[in-house]
Design brief:
394 residues; 5-stranded mixed β-sheet; 5-stranded antiparallel β-sheet; 15 strands; 18% strand
Length: 394
């Protein structure tokens, strides 16, 4: 269950991002919690506390950033004062003031006063009809405890973990860029980071994360935020075919396709070093022999062997295929182009930039194997799901 400060923080943050009041419940549902009491209670409280405007399109006021930076005790006292003055009826305001006095002195309450207890319970002031320790602090009966410094944030498995309660002022800055999946849990995958840098400067997001984690960001995360190139180094052997049709023909075999999965171009495949002996054996059974091809290098350098296929020419079977002209041309030139891809279950097509590497047919469908610059990885696209937004000469 969220603390009162976290409820108000989430509400203010939703209004900051333009979410209408009628959809606020979805924001709480998205992070896996429910809004208790009703939204009307929290709206009235925030309006009376001068944290949001009264207009239909509620927006945070100038007091919001100051309130977020206050101590927990000051935040609660401010909300408690707003709760006392929320009702328009003077008798109801008097009932709330009287209720606080009865709770402080331990006197019995009447029925009308008991009706107001849920509001105080939501603020953490009372529970089971009596004051909580925090309620005694808010009413000045107990001294405020020594504040516990917030713990440092952590980056784990492409996620940012923010221990709660947090530094709310710093979290307010963070949620300008990132939205939590659950309270204190922020995904740092490529899609979320791309959206984040559209909301503000990437350098500012990096500075916020480094303040929260109290340490420099991992180089991979920093590069992803700045959209810097990422180099992937893989051990293995590059196989070079004399023409693309040979590679396409061999990939029709399900067994060989597993070994020819890392395509570098229409004529080049990277084979994992551990799978190389098994692959060579499979190819030799088909009468295909690989021989090393070492380029001119200095004697003291350590050469990395490449291999290409040499086999007697044989007519390749005609394929009943109809590849799109534009993709085939970009495949021939090995250049990148922009497409719209209708992913299964997607609401709208996704813009992608791809460099086609290979076209092949499987199960009656034509597929494009390409390097996706948007995802920075090799991907397979079904041809009938690709839309080219407008042909341009490569």
């Amino acid at each position: 269950m969220l603390t009162p400060t976290h409820y108000v923080f989430t509400l203010l943050n939703a209004f900051r991002h333009g979410i209408p009041a009628s959809q606020i419940w979805r924001e709480f549902q998205r992070i896996g919690t429910c809004l208790k009491p009703r939204l009307s209670f929290w709206l009235s409280l925030c309006i009376q506390a001068h944290l949001i405007t009264e207009t239909p399109a509620h927006v945070p006021t100038s007091l919001t950033k100051r309130w977020i930076s206050w101590s927990s005790e000051s935040q609660t006292i401010h909300l408690l004062e707003a709760w006392q003055t929320c009702p328009h009826n003077p008798k109801d305001r008097a009932t709330r003031r009287r209720l606080l006095k009865r709770l402080a002195s331990g006197l019995p309450m009447n029925t009308r006063e008991r009706r107001e207890l849920p509001g105080l319970e939501s603020l953490g002031i009372c529970a089971n009809g009596g004051l909580t320790d925090w309620g005694r602090v808010a009413l000045g009966l107990f001294p405020a405890p020594t504040p516990i410094p917030p713990l440092a944030w952590r980056v784990e498995n492409h996620r940012l973990i923010v221990p709660l309660p947090a530094d709310w002022a710093l979290l307010w800055e963070l949620e300008r860029f990132l939205a939590p999946e659950t309270p204190g849990n922020y995904p740092l995958n490529a899609a979320n980071l791309r959206e984040a840098v559209q909301r503000g400067p990437a350098e500012e997001l990096i500075a916020i994360l480094e303040r929260g984690t109290a340490s420099p960001l991992p180089p991979e995360l920093r590069a992803a935020i700045l959209n810097q190139p990422v180099l992937n180094m893989t051990e293995g052997t590059v196989l070079e075919f004399s023409n693309p049709e040979e590679l396409k023909q061999l990939r029709r075999s399900a067994v060989l396709r597993e070994h020819f999965n890392h395509i570098l171009s229409s004529r080049h495949v990277l084979v994992d070093a551990g799978n190389e002996p098994r692959l060579i054996e499979l190819l030799e059974r088909r009468g295909i022999y690989a021989r090393p091809l070492v380029e001119s290098i200095l004697e003291e350098d350590n050469p990395r062997p490449r291999a290409y296929f040499h086999q007697s020419p044989a007519p390749l079977p005609e394929e009943d295929v109809r590849p799109q002209i534009v993709l085939a041309e970009y495949l021939r030139l090995q250049q990148a182009l922009d497409i719209l891809y209708h992913a299964p279950g997607g609401v709208r097509p996704e813009p992608r930039r791809i460099t086609p590497l290979l076209m092949e047919e499987r199960g009656g469908q034509m597929y494009i194997i390409a390097y996706c610059h948007t995802r920075r990885a090799q991907r397979t696209f079904r041809l009938d799901r690709i839309e080219i937004p407008g042909r341009k000469d490569p």
